[in-house]
Design a protein that fits this description.
With 253 residues, this protein is α/β, with parallel strands linked by helices. Helices cover 32% and strands 20% of the residues. It has seven helices and eleven strands. Helix 1 links the parallel strand 1 and strand 2.
């Protein structure tokens, strides 16, 4: 069975997740589920209650591992579906996991991981929940929890403590799981310089009127396109104004 999931800790993020799931459901005719730390409901969306560990990153990893589907697309709550993207499931015919590179940086200096094995953004994950992937998710959670208590690198920046991706990078490298790297159209981060070639399908970042932003960026000739950072500011409390992005795209011609 195939499905799309979100993980949300706290009422504010649950509301954002249910909004994002409802938007995705209109475009992607597969089951949708939101893991919720508080009671919630939305038409057509399955809500799955869980008890928070007190850290939304740990909750996210745990809920990714607990997907009710054999083949899953996980989206962060700040991901807006602007086109159908169920073709991502087809990658699982040959690969166990698919995700995009983290934009704007390549990963911290982890002595156990080659510098050429760039960091993966965990905001969009496509995966088959088989034995190997389940084991990697368990190691990811355990590694992240351990690093919270014992930072692993001298001079490591705050991303090790505040984000799950450095631990994901190490565990993915160790796992040898077959990985496909997604194009940025499936994980477009407009807050950093970006590259697109085809239509944007998933906008990753809290933004007002994501559909209007997508219509603007997708109206251009579908060929190689390079953009500077199109907005500043980030966070659910201060969504980026979609008009700001559209104005920036207009200035670029």
């Amino acid at each position: 069975m195939r499905g799309i999931i979100f993980s949300a800790t706290g009422e504010r993020y649950i509301a954002a997740a249910l909004k994002a799931a409802s938007q995705s459901l209109r475009l992607n005719p597969v089951p949708h589920a939101v893991f919720c730390s508080c009671p919630a409901e939305a038409e057509g969306i399955r809500t799955i209650a869980f008890e928070s560990a007190g850290n939304p990153h740990i909750d996210k990893i745990s809920n990714i591992a607990a997907s009710p589907y054999d083949e899953t697309i996980y989206l962060d709550v700040d991901c807006a579906a602007v086109e159908q993207f169920t073709e991502l499931f087809d990658l699982l015919t040959y690969y166990d996991l698919a995700a995009a590179h983290a934009p704007g940086y390549r990963g911290i200096a982890d002595p156990e991981v080659p510098v050429s094995f760039y960091e993966i953004n965990t905001g969009v994950l496509v995966y088959r929940l088989n034995v190997a992937v389940s084991a990697m998710f368990r190691e990811w959670r355990a590694t992240y929890q351990e690093w919270l208590e014992n930072p692993p690198f001298d001079g490591a920046d705050g991303r090790v403590l505040g984000q799950d991706q450095p631990a994901f990078r190490r565990c993915l490298w160790r796992s040898k799981i077959p990985l496909y790297v997604l194009a940025p159209e499936y994980n477009w981060r407009f807050l950093v310089p970006s590259f697109l070639c085809r239509k944007v399908k998933i906008i990753h970042g809290f933004v007002t009127d994501a559909n209007a932003v997508a219509a603007k960026v997708n109206e251009l000739p579908l060929r190689a396109r390079v953009y500077p950072a199109l907005a500043t500011g980030y966070g659910i409390n201060s969504e980026v104004d979609g008009a700001q992005i559209i104005d920036a795209l207009n200035l670029l011609g």
